[in-house]
Amino acid sequence: MISIKKLIERNGEELFRVTLDSYLAALGAIGQSGVEACPPLGSAMRDNLLRLQAALSTEATRDQLEKTGQKVETEIAQWGSGAAEYFRQSAGEIKELMVILARAAEITGERDERYSRQFQEFTGRLEAVADLHDLALIRDSLMESARDLRTCAQAMAEESQKSIARLRQDLSVYQAKLDDAERLAGQDALTGLDNRRRVEAAIQQRIAHGQAFTVLLLDLNGFKKINDTYGHLAADELLKQFSAELKAGFRATDVVGRWGGDEFLIVMDAGHEAAKAQIQRISRWVLGDYTIPAECGRKKVTVSAAIGAAEWQGGDSMEMLLGRADRAMYADKQSRDRRG
Q1: Are residues 49 and 31 in contact, defined by beta-carbon separation less than 8 angstroms?
Q2: Cys bridge to 198: 146, 178, 186, 291, which one at CB 3.0-4.6 A?
Q3: Pair (200, 243) in one structural domain
Q4: What is the edge-to-edge ordering of all strands in the sheet holding 255-260?
């Protein structure tokens, strides 16, 4: 009987290819499941996993597999926490809106019931007037009913205004919470930068308006080593510091986002030449030394990055534009590897 070990040795390449194909298929299935489970957040995860899938299809080295595994873990974790928060907020918003509507219905119902009784009393009083024969009594009864009716109408108007004002106030608070939820939905939880969803929306908006812009795709070099050496907390701290510096290095009108893991995407309302000048400024002022927590105190680490730029050209889809930026970034990484 042929042992499993001998079988693997004899058919190692074939088994590796079968395993890799299964892994690639699993990435696609995970991404699609994420879209179906939570559409607002699943598209970003699916696109990230498809990019990792495409990269593995062309180069499946051990280092590439390890790096891909880490990124897949990060993507799924981010999607999981984001989806949980999204559904929690959605449930809370629906519950709060239902409470507001129920309160408005309750107030209106109580008011209508109260004044309905008063109008019934007025009707009864007027019917009683029909049986009177003394004109003085009829006049006094009508005058009293008119005064009561006027007072009742004024009270109804005042209560209606108060109810409407209260409802408007409740809805205003609810709208503010919705605005905050929308802001948080477009924000990366760790770094505070725009997340992939918001960056993609910014790109699509500029494409729809035919607006000239350039995207910069930035990938930190050696981040996995920092993560493995100093731990997740130190690596997260580095991402926070770097993100703050990166955000400060751009204009308020530029969109600076975390693309996923240790990748960042910037949308600049400028041409390619201006983007190249901005890359030089990033290299001088954003990249460089950072201090992170370590077991022995604070540790200085040097951050470098591969950067690719692509200017939008009429007719480009978002996928075409990002593909050019990704290839430019990869070329920059290879160039740095040859020099280093």
Answers
A1: yes
A2: 186
A3: yes
A4: 255-260, 263-268, 214-220, 305-311
